[in-house]
Amino acid sequence: MSILKKRLNKYDEILNADKIDIPNLKKLCFHGIPDEGGLRSLCWKLLLNYLPITRASWSETLTRKRELYRTFIEDLIVTPGESNADGDRVDVTLCDHPLNLNPDSQWQTYFKDNEILLQIDKDVRRLCPDISFFQQGTDFPCKVIVTGNGQKRLHRRVQHTVLRSANVERKGLGVTKEQQIAVSVRKAIEDYAPLQEGSEAHWEVLERILFLYAKLNPGQGYVQGMNEILGPIYHAFACDPCISWKEYAEADTFFCFTNLMAEIRDFFIKTLDEAEFGINSMMIKLTQHVKDNDREVWQRLNQQELCPQYYSFRWLTLLLSQEFPLPDVMRIWDSLFADEQRFDFLIHICCAMIILLRDQLLVSDFAANVKLLQNFPSMDIQIVFCKAAALAGISLDA
């Protein structure tokens, strides 16, 4: 029996049990989830605490969550003055109007929402510009949108302004590579056009998920870079070969993304940068890890005053989603989601990335080293994993 077949049998044994053995599932997933049979989609739902460990509870949980998501769309995506339940146009001049400055005005809320939506729209239109998936149409466009009057298609609210400017300066996170910006802006104009009525591109689905997340989390809102966290999760779910799972990729993605953001939200809130699990704490851990494992490289970076903020801020905040091709990112996330300490292994991977570049780092000047670290060279992901596992003192043998 082949190694892959043995691993698939192990997955079947765990996932078909009445009660999922999460510790053993994590051990199995840590070594990479096979692409076969939608395994990654199912395992991520378990690892991100969306599905309960009791299989008998799955149906009720999924039905309840998916219905809840549908109500979010109906209740939170609202245009003031749109038709009421009887189909009659609402006379906005009776009690509210676009010039009403009252904070409780629906129009004031609408305009503030559009400010957030404008940024979301820009970001989802330039997601993963090297692949065509997000420009393609989904097989399951949102029923609320398709059967309604189309007013809930969010891109319409910003379509006249979203692509007027190529200025994509990042404030706060600064997480997009300059090379990708130029490509993605061009592709946004060329390829990320909305589809005809009754259809939706995958980027439109992501736009809706992020908008709803921002509405439901006003204390945090939307922060640039969240689109990079959402994309791989949605891709895994929307590519599930099982139609009964694929049909609800949007709702399932929303709740898995929400659960993941609850764990890494400190990375995206500037006031929590210094918190125990804030991004600065993570960068300090990474620097110390490099010092402990390759003092010569650490000294070189230290002498050059090459601060980890220049490169590892993006690595850590976005869980390496912009440093590797999407298939490699998903392999990395298998291990991160299965990590008992959740993101400790992320530090090991980032440290491994630096040490693997030691020969160049030790002979290059500050400018060359910054460029090298900000644009991590193409490398077999297994090499990175082997080095990270050695640093962590673990074996990658499944």
Explain what this protein looks like in three dimensions:
The protein is an all-alpha fold. The chain is 56% helix and 0% strand. It contains 19 helices and no strands. It has helices at residues 3-15, 22-30, 39-47, 58-76, 106-125, 143-147, 178-190, 202-216, 226-238, 243-246, 249-268, 279-293, 295-303, 312-317, 326-338, 344-355, 358-363, 366-374, 381-392. α12 (279-293) crosses α13 (295-303). The longest helix is centred in the first third of the chain and has 20 residues, at 106-125. It is globular, with a radius of gyration of 23 Å. The model is unreliable at 88-92 and 160-185 (pLDDT under 50).
Helix content: 55-70%
Main pleated-sheet profile: none
Specify Rg, calculated over alpha carbons.
Answer: 23 Å
Number of DSSP-assigned strands: 0
**What does the oligomeric state look like here?**
single chain
Decide which structural class fits the backbone: mainly alpha
Gross geometry: globular
Unreliable stretches (pLDDT < 50, length at least 5) are: 88-92, 160-185
Order of helices and strands: HHHHHHHHHHHHHHHHHHH
Mean model confidence by pLDDT: 85
- The DSSP helix count reads 19
How far apart, in Å, are the first and last alpha carbons? 15 Å
Q: Beta-sheet strand percentage?
A: under 5%
